[in-house]
Structures are given as C-alpha cells and as structure tokens.
Amino acid sequence: MHILIAILTAVGGAIWWWARMNPREAIDTASDLATTAINAPRRIAFRRKTGQHPVEGIDDPRIAICAIAQAFLEVDGLPTQETRDQLHVLLRKKLRCSEEEAHEMEVLGRWLMTQCDEPIYAIPRLGKRLYKLDDGRAWDTLQDVLQPLVLGELSQGQINAIDDLRLAFKK
What we know:
73% of the residues lie in helices and 0% in strands. By secondary structure, the chain is mainly α. α1 crosses α2, α3 (61-74) runs antiparallel to α4 (81-94) and α5 packs across α6. It is elongated and about 60 Å long.
C-alpha cells in the first residue's frame, strides 16, 4: 500500500510542478479535457452495454451505415486513400453530417468493424443491427453510400457482402 501512495504522490507532484511551470497551458488542457468529457456522449450515439457485443450499442443508424461501408471497402483488402476520401465525402453528403461528425463516425465505425474480427463477419452483424434500429428504412441510404464506392464490377467478397445485407434486411 505504501508503494501505491508513493507512486500517486510522485505523479501528483509531477502534475503540480508542470501546472506551476506552465499555468496557461495547464488551464487550456483542463478546459479542453472538461469540454471533451461533457460533449462526448452527445456527439456520438453509442453506448457500450455490459455483457453485449459493441455492435449492439449502436443507437444511430448513420454509425451502422458508416461501419458497413468501411467493412464493404475492406472485404477484399485495404482500400486506397482515394477511396477512403471518397467515402468521407459520401458520408457527409448522404448522411448530412459535418466534417467532424463524419470523422468521428469513421473512427467509431472502423473500431466496430475490428470488434467483429474481419469485415466479412462485420457486415451481417452490422446489417442486422441497422435493421433493428429502423426496420429497414435505411436500405436506400445504405445503397446510396455503397453504390458510388464500387468501381466497375463487384468482387466476389462484395457480392457475398451484399447478399448478407439482403438477408439481414429481409427479416
């Protein structure tokens, strides 16, 4: 116990010393931290529920659409930066969101996709969640986002992904 107290004292002393030497920076950092903590739950409609898969915590269909689009791009390997930029523009346009919201949705969507292990497993799970959120009304929006991302013919992985999405939306 005394070791823990010594460590906490050393960390507290270091923070105090830094704040004393850089008061303006310390105030700005504390203000930024407080603002971020207050606004985070409102900005992203995602709540992780204990004992459930993270995909089940999605409360906003736009996040599910973003995650599905990212998984769709990565079914056959990593997409190019040009394709990622195109997805970003499509998300802003089709989902009517700001630059910051689109970026946050992309980060969260990518994390949700990785929680499903691989993109091919993420698409059916995310499709089912999207269907539960709005009873399939987002199908047209999802198509509007995915269609411009396809260059030429669909690969076999993308065809399988679309079949998985159709199955998820038929229930």
